[in-house]
Amino acid sequence: MSGGMRLIIALLTCALGAVASLDAAQAGRLKRVLIFGDSLTSGFDLPEGAGFAWALRRHLAQRGRSDALVMNTSRAGDDTAIGVDRIPLAFSAGADVVIVELGGNDMLGDVDPGVVYRNLEKIVHHSKRVGARVILTGMVSLPKRDPSYKKRFDAVFPTLAAREKVPLYPFFLDGAFGNPRMMLEDGEHPNAAGSDYIASRLAPLVAREMNAVDRRAHGHYGYAGR
């Protein structure tokens, strides 16, 4: 078993352990927020407690959603194809809200945008099949030798979100990328401050989707409030 797979299992085990420590009534009220991404959300090169998942948990609690069980199955280096391959493991603990954050490594590897679209579509479809709300976070391409690549890649995320009728956070690193106070020295990954900033901006959207899960539990369905 690879180290990455062991890490995912450990993270899921930790999340499930938190549920087990609560009584049945409390556990039943928890909403499972699954982060399904790459190094941008994995806490790459950050100490424990300083990454995106921890910051999101804090910001959700500040918005009155202390019932969020944030499960981070992100893994550094993954592209969308690897993401599709690890769907069964990533969803093994279930999910109520899924944050899909993949695509940056595809762009760096010049993967055809059509392939990226189809892979992300599979992840979104699986999320819906298991009854989860989906939040798609976007990525934008660096300039490429092929001038058409950026246009086609950047269109993947808004097009998929519109067709699948899921909320889109247009650019995951918006407001952090290019700001040395919010990025690691490599200029590619958010530091603790950047992770906290991004989480603060995504938290209202996640909380809204958690509210939709609550409404569905009371017999109200659909993506109302988009």
Automatic annotation (TrEMBL):
<dbReference type="InterPro" id="IPR036514">
    <property type="entry name" value="SGNH_hydro_sf"/>
</dbReference>
<feature type="signal peptide">
    <location>
        <begin position="1"/>
        <end position="20"/>
    </location>
</feature>
<dbReference type="InterPro" id="IPR051532">
    <property type="entry name" value="Ester_Hydrolysis_Enzymes"/>
</dbReference>
<dbReference type="Pfam" id="PF13472">
    <property type="entry name" value="Lipase_GDSL_2"/>
</dbReference>
<dbReference type="InterPro" id="IPR013830">
    <property type="entry name" value="SGNH_hydro"/>
</dbReference>
<protein>
    <submittedName>
        <fullName>Arylesterase</fullName>
    </submittedName>
</protein>
<dbReference type="GO" id="GO:0004622">
    <property type="term" value="F:phosphatidylcholine lysophospholipase activity"/>
</dbReference>
<feature type="domain" description="SGNH hydrolase-type esterase">
    <location>
        <begin position="35"/>
        <end position="195"/>
    </location>
</feature>
<keyword id="KW-0732">Signal</keyword>
